[in-house]
Amino acid sequence: MNAPAQDQAAGRPRAAVEQAPRRVPAGESARAHIVLDASGGDAPLRERVAGAFSAARLYPEIRVSLCGVHEEMEHEVRELGENPDNVALVDAPEPIGMHESPIQALREKKNSSIVVGIEMVARGEAHAFVSAGNTGAVAAASTLKLGRLKGVQRPGIAATMQVFDHPLVAIDVGANVECKAMHLLQYGIMASVFAREVLQIENPRVGLLNVGEEATKGNDMVKQAFELLAGAELNFVGNVEPEKLFNYGCDIVVCDGFVGNVLLKVGESLVMTLVGRLREQVQQSLRYKLGFVLCRSLFRHLKSCADYTEYGGAPLLGLNGVTIITHGASDARAIQNAIREARAFVELEVNSHIEEAVLRDAASRGLRT
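User: That's the sequence. What structure does it adopt?
Assistant: Structure tokens below.
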């Protein structure tokens, strides 16, 4: 994942203005309008179109706009058959590739699906934007065009992982590779609201990823973050080592975007590699094949622990709008679930709760916002 553009002088995302949160007007929450980036992602376009159709049928009260190259989308719509009434096509003829420079692409491709879709949210024409495309471009465009909620210093990407029998929210997993202690504090606050409102975790436990559990461990930034988190209105459980993440030691793990991105990719690749190796070994022995049959449900459960399709996507928390970033290889099921998550985010008015929590923490510290 690439980090969004930073203001060279201040170290902040450029033009990341603070505004009043965009609230869903009374009576409209049941008609959430979600824009899906049809051009972004490594999977075939048909997967995104099929995922949008599935979500539109599953949640007939929402509207979905597919934003991409019109001719390509029309072709897939014809191939898939009947187009749900609550799905529309929005032309955006300039795709941004997965490996393009985010800032350069945003400057040169004003009619890309990322720019057009996020601007629809910025103008109030849509409530949320979902993309499996270039993460750096999505994060940068969202920060620049939507701005931040009042009091939020840096938005962060919150990825939900299935760790055996419980969800674990990791924040940040790629938006900001260089952080300050206050950013980590706000990540903990925002992720707590998200976990409580969307994941229905009543009192989420927040842990700070570190090389040891003692408060004296880590670099200066992490030590300062420990003190801030310990003094906040959070269910803070202290420093957590990686072992705690896989033993139900916390519900939320806070870290900078560099560490979080590595954590996310290592966890996913480790499980997938382990499952692949087991499959290879099973083919080499009749005894192994018999054992595999007897333990099939266990192996299926193990594989599900790295299944990114279950939660759909990762919200960029702290924005004055809703952006859900999903895996580049997202199939139709993952897209459907990402749209489901965007719908919940909008209808539960999560941004309003996040802003209230951040401002309440600032007030308790005597800070001006």
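The two ends are 30 Å apart (CA to CA).
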